[in-house]
Design goal:
It is built from twelve helices and 19 strands. The model has no long low-confidence stretch (mean pLDDT 94). It has helices at 17-23, 36-50, 65-72, 85-93, 109-116, 119-124, 135-141, 177-189, 203-206, 216-248, 264-268, 280-283; strands at 31-35, 54-58, 77-82, 100-102, 125-129, 150-156, 160-162, 165-167, 193-200, 255-258, 275-278, 300-308, 314-318, 335-338, 343-344, 354-358, 370-374, 387-392, 395-401. A hairpin with a 2-residue loop joins strand 7 and strand 8 (165-167). 29% of the residues lie in helices and 23% in strands. Strands 1, 12, 13, 14, 15, 16, 17, 18 and 19 form a nine-stranded mixed β-sheet that branches. It is globular. Helix 8 packs across helix 10. It is an alpha/beta fold and 411 residues long.
């Protein structure tokens, strides 16, 4: 277990990077670190923001069993929101959690068959659907008269629609009380299933930065985003409550899940919501620097070695093309953070085998020196490394494997 104790003091402008550099000087690059103090601080802040609602940890934003187990041991955290059924089965079998909701529908026939024939798994895991027709595949794979009762979570659409404009993730077609009630009634009539809960993710609130960058254009955009988010918060609260009420007329629910790192306060304030989801805020990737209501400490980062000095004011590091998923743009690129003053070069950006960097500080760097980066998103960093070095003070106190390091690939 990682020793997650909130530190009494805050890092200076360099964050954990100077300490991480000293701690990992003898480790081969690329090297990824998790600062235990910053991770503990972020975990504590998420709980404070969630108020009285427990937090279900979104595993896609972590992708390390040891980190998941350590966070779940903290007060205020309960259960995992997994991203595949195979991952959920693995997390249950390895003792990480006995309460796992799969956040996305599964077509993994082998995993569905395993779930349906194992009492322990069926008790611990809830699968996700957004249409009753998705249950047909489960019935095709397993015998609904001779299997374990399968728990189901129904996903509600919590996007904002303004006329023809759709703001939010395309996840579910269930966005009205009538559709929600019909889906619940259909589920109740199906043999071999039990509707255990519902989930609604308001991506347009939780996943869109709303802090301006200081220039007029980004300030204007941030004002517009905040206005849309305020409108969306009111819309989601009313529709989610109405849909939950309609479903509850058909069957009682074990849980109602909502939100994400960016919307914990507003989602937790809804009376119909019983728990919230979060994960990215634990690591504090740089995409979350753009939120007005909170600022996580950068807990996760990675370092690459300088290998070239091709020109005055420039260095080149080995590798670096660890670009985040989503709409392509500069905000998806890894960000050099230490030494301060380095920027990516527009003609190459973050490259597969080399990444040139420009800045006056480059002239003070030599081959073998380290440059520290922050990833744009949280869990995707785990897909590039086999382990994290856990930093306390100026020392590496332990190494923890990522899913990749344990030979597990779930997407």
């Amino acid at each position: 277990m990682i020793n997650l104790v909130v530190p009494d003091t805050e890092d200076g402008v360099e964050g954990p990077w100077v300490r991480a550099g000293r701690a990992t000087a003898d480790r081969a690059a690329p090297v990824a670190v998790l600062d235990a103090g910053s991770l503990a601080h972020n975990a504590d802040q998420l709980v404070r923001r969630a108020g009285t609602k427990s937090i279900r940890v979104a595993s896609k934003s972590v992708r390390s069993r040891e980190v998941l187990s350590s966070v779940l041991a903290l007060p205020g955290y309960a259960g995992v929101l997994a991203y595949t059924l195979a991952e959920a089965i693995w997390l249950v079998r390895t003792g990480v959690s006995t309460d796992v909701v799969v956040g996305y529908p599964s077509t993994d026939r082998a995993a569905l068959s395993e779930l349906a024939t194992d009492p322990m798994l069926a008790e611990a895991i809830t699968i996700m659907i957004d249409s009753p027709s998705q249950l047909d595949l489960v019935d095709a794979v397993t015998d609904n008269r001779n299997r374990e009762l399968i728990k189901v979570c129904l996903e509600l659409d919590c996007s904002l629609e303004l006329g023809p404009v759709h703001l939010g993730a395309w996840r579910s077609a269930i966005r009205t009380p009538a559709r929600a009630r019909a889906a619940a009634a259909h589920l109740e009539a199906r043999t071999g299933f039990r509707l255990a809960g519902v989930m609604g993710y308001e991506a347009q609130v939780a996943g869109v930065p709303n802090r301006g960058g200081g220039d007029p254009a980004s300030t204007l955009r941030a004002v517009a985003v905040r206005g849309i988010q305020q409108l969306s918060v009111r819309d989601v609260a009313a529709r989610r409550a109405a849909m939950v009420a309609a479903i509850s007329e058909v069957t009682p629910l074990d849980f109602v899940n909502g939100g994400g790192t960016g919307s914990l306060e507003t989602t937790a304030a809804e009376a119909s919501v019983t728990e919230v989801a979060a994960g990215s805020g634990l690591f504090g990737p740089h995409l979350f620097d753009g939120y007005l209501a909170f600022t996580p400490r950068p807990a996760a980062g990675f370092a690459l070695d300088v290998v070239r000095r091709p020109a005055r004011g420039m260095v080149t590091v080995a590798g670096g093309g660890w670009i985040a998923s989503g709409v392509p743009g500069r905000d998806r690129l890894p960000r050099p953070v230490w030494p301060e003053g380095l920027t990516l070069v527009g003609t190459e950006m973050a490259g597969e085998v080399q990444t040139p960097l420009r800045g006056r500080v480059a002239d003070a760097l030599a081959p073998g020196d380290r440059v520290w980066f922050r990833h744009s998103k949280a869990g995707e960093l785990s897909e590039h490394v086999n382990e994290f070095m856990i930093i306390e003070g100026d020392a590496v106190v332990q190494q923890v494997a990522t899913y990749r390091g344990e030979g597990q690939a779930f997407l």
